[in-house]
Amino acid sequence: MIRALYTAASGMSAQQMNLDTVANNLANSATAGFRRRRLQFEDMIYQNVVTPGSAQSTQTTQAGLQIGLGTKPVATEVIMTQGDFNQTGNNLDLAIQGQGFFQVTRPDGAIAYTRAGSFHLNNQGQMVTANGDLLTPQITIPSNATNVQISQYGVVSATIPGQTQSSQLGTLQLATFANPGGLNSIGGNLFLPSTSSGTAITDTPGGTTGVGTLQQGYLENSNVDAVEEFVQMIMAQRAYESNSKVVKTADDMYGQINNLVR
């Protein structure tokens, strides 16, 4: 009987974390470039009352008698599906059509990766994120430049006073990973590589490594589907409720056993 209490408690704990994951997804439904998470579970150790396959006689074997001891969360899978595009009209807003991540340099010099393409200029004319992280490779736009254009292949050009043709200011690069779902989320719309994701493979947009192309004047919305998250919320609630009823039933049975000795 004691097993039922702990088994149901493990289910309640797992569904609490499942609801935490759903809450984070919904909270970031308006976060540009956000990738939704999905919690994965696995069953816990089994108690072998009778080991499957053990000999019952010289001719037959036992089917086995195993009692499961609950569940536990093991991973949060990052869902890398494309989010919808939102037209902003800002020349420095970029969306990636297809695979890939923008590369940015953090204050400690480390390279991080993001799908959020909301860039602006710092006081030196360099393209940076909202947190001031430099876009890598660095692109510097002169203060007197007008009509900044970024092609789908990452070529940045602008009109400079006194020049008859547009000046090319640099070319953007994107990064891909063998397993982008294994990236380490650190907040601020940023990811860091891990042993699970593999090392970054860089290329120009639309290159031969499979990276996507760029869309100037657009931002990629979060890929969170609110309807799907509400369904997950209801499922988590019902699973939690069912496990709590198991705890209540086990407690009632304990009470009946205790009353037998009175």
Automatic annotation (TrEMBL):
Keywords: Bacterial flagellum, Cell projection, Cilium, Flagellum. Residues 5-35 form the Flagellar basal body rod protein N-terminal domain. Signal peptide: none annotated. The keyword Coiled coil does not apply. It is found in: Bacterial flagellum basal body. It comes from the Bacteria. Residues 215-260 form the Flagellar basal-body/hook protein C-terminal domain. This is Flagellar basal-body rod protein FlgG. It comes from Terriglobus albidus. The lineage of its organism: Bacteria, Pseudomonadati, Acidobacteriota, Terriglobia, Terriglobales.
